[in-house]
Amino acid sequence: MSTEGVDKGRRRFLTAATTVVGAVGTGFVVAPFVISWQPSARAQAAGAPVEADISRLEPGQMMTVEWRGKPVWIVRRSEQNMKELAEIEAQLQDPESKNSGQQPAYAQNRFRSRDNNPEYVVLVGICTHLGCSPTYRPDLGAADLGGAAWRGGFFCPCHGSKFDLAGRVYTGVPAPANLEVPPYQYLSESVILVGDDGGAA
Question: Which DSSP string corresponds to 25-52?
Answer without folding.
Answer: HHHHHHHHHHHHHSPPHHHHHHT--EEE
